[in-house]
Amino acid sequence: RYQGLMNTEQIKHDVWVDTKQVSEWFNIKPGTLKKQRQRGVGLPYHKFGTLVRYNTLEVQQYLDEGKKNER
What we know:
This protein is of the alpha+beta class. It has helices at residues 19-26, 30-39, 56-70, and strands at residues 16-17, 46-48, 51-55. The mean pLDDT is 85.
């Protein structure tokens, strides 16, 4: 489901990225990510005031868990 330009195999440290970066990595429209946040589904995220940020390690963990559940 979340496939794109992000090489998740190489994530080794905490990095906080914005919606635009995540949308580019996974080729998902920013509006789709917003709808997922509103519905409480999709990638884990954090809000800092009005800012939305995704932690790359948490995204990696979420993707890894999805792979385990597919087996």
